[in-house]
Amino acid sequence: MAEAHQAVAFQFTVTPEGVDVQLSREALKQIYLSGVASWKKRFARIKNSILTGVYPATPSSWLVVVMATVSSMYCRIDLSMGLICHIRRYLPSCHYLSFQHQTLLSAVLFSTGVWFSGILLCRQSLKLLLSYHGWMFEPHGKMSWSTRVWVALVKMISGRNPMLYSFQTSLPKLPVPSVEATIRRYLESVHPLLKDEKYRKMEVLAQAFQQHTAPRLQKYLVLKSWWATNYVSDWWEEYVYLRGRGPIMVNSNYYIMDFLYVTPSPLQAARAGNIVHSILLYRRKLDREEIPPVMALGIVPMCSFQMERMFNTTRIPGMESDTLQHLLDSKHLAVYHKGRFYKLWLYQGGKLLKPRDLELQFQRILDDPSPPQPGEEKLAALTAGERVPWAKARARFFSQGKNKVSLDAIERAAFFLALDEEAHGYKRGREDSMDSYAKSLLHGRCYDRWFDKSFTLVVYKNGKVGTNAEHTWADAPIMGHLWEVMTRRKEKTQFSKGKPNVNPKMPKLQWKVIDSSYRVAKALADDVDFHCFQFSNFGKGLIKRFKISPDAFIQISLQLARFQGSFCLTYEASMTRLFREGRTETVRSCTRESTAFVRSMMDPQLERLQLFQVAAEKHQQMYRLAMTGAGIDRHLFCLYVVSKYLGVESPFLAQVLAEPWRLSTSQTPQQQIKMFDMEKNQDLVSSGGGFGPVADDGYGVSYIIAGENLITFHISSKFSSPETDSRRFGRNIRQAMLDIADLFNVPANKVAN
Which one of 277, 332, 471, 481 is the catalytic residue? Predict the structure, then answer.
């Protein structure tokens, strides 16, 4: 008996005369081309490692140094001051090496040593220069002579045409603040939130901690900062994200929206083909390190380490802690549509499929009339529910057989794609259109997003797109960078043209398990109260004319909008990517100065404008301190982790980390890369993104300052809390922004514009 295996490169038949082997030329050709593509990637990684390893020098600069040294020898000038002769004495004697050859080899070794020494000197010099942050604290538009000299030196040493990871070893380490400074700033931040008696108790706890417990904990933390690349990031990833046992849907994952006004193609398959192709071109550049690092002010490099795990990454559930699985490469996509999972190959013969070829595959999935397998439709809700039940189900049902093969196809995919059956997006005249769009991206139906993947790309029926991103592997600006490149890339046409070149096999995944987490996820999703709106009365253009930071203006407006007789602990995310492997820090934006201004708005006798300006300046000072490693919360968090390792109980740290963030805020970065003039292409404005509420009785607020005259807010809360209402808070924000603008005596028509 003989079996024909069409999916392999040969067929064989056993006969009395022997084994008859029939080779398939096409299959062998595809194997050969795939192998060539794989080896090209390996060589590219080796080349990039060399170029990054010697930056800011280049291999050609080594040749220049060698030639200069050898040339000086022929001119009887010893630049080595006798070192070349010293090196020659230690070379092994060999009849193949003449005296001249030994001298030449010694010169090459000396030149190489000088070259490497120059590289190390440049890197250490650059690291010292990048440790200077005085430029951040200077008045806007003014630059001291010391900063001008610093800028010139940074430009001179930074080299030209850096690759993505060229500056990683030159970035300074995140410094550990002193305990005294952190305690002082902490007490200052909670003073306006606590009544006098509670504040005095907290002050006593803080002083006892500073005198008795903190010195021992701080020593261990300083030791870690010497040894580790970053004293915060690994513990932050493990204890804040991976060890969380609750649902990551809503509680951790966040979303990003498409263009606000335009949709490049109303055809779902065509938009999916174009957008996936753009993402894969970005991944190719990422693998080749051809993406330039993000530079603050175009001068100061930011850490790029978070970008390493953007693709081919999945969060794997565990009983006590999850893990991140990251692969170097993945050649397929996991696709979900109408309760069915598909594995879609992205390459043919080692070449990336073109948009038209991808469109064909997506259209085949959309046209597939087959029903889901038993238990398949709601399977992804396992990733939306509690982590322990998911870990148990994974160990029990996905350890072998078809289930394991199918799960591997998802977890080892480049990313996850959901072809949604609904239509979403901004609709003029419909205030709730953006609300439903946001909720769809944040949690969907709880079973049509694979929340464990690094990100899920959602393509809607009307061509709108969006993404839901897992938070462990990176923060929102990293996904924002991909999103800007992906959505700003000029898509081919509204309707993809041309005939498909290939028709790769597209298997449908098989399952044999019933979802057990759907009810938990559904209850969580139904409780999310979301409101998304555009504030178009004015934007950063007018705010900058007030000589106020737009971010400070919005943060103080949020305090005014939230005020109901008392204030709450407020979280604003700031980045620490000026340091190696830096992630985020907290800006406690509810300050004594901002609360004084808010109270002044209830008293017409007070000088409101002056109080507002003082509050805005204080906010900027807090933000700068957070960015430069002088924040409060990451230091206290790490001290708490050390205390747990040492078995030391600290009432102060326990109370600090138990305080709820009833107002959690974040700004979505805009135009991290300058691909076009936003003012000349206002139709390409982004909608930004958002996240779920952090506290059960609090708000989550994300905003994007999109251009000169538009700010989009994303507000989340919970229906179950009688104290919150997202729409009401949205109205309060709008009114607070207008009330503050009125303080500057701007004519009503200018505010309206």
Answer: 471
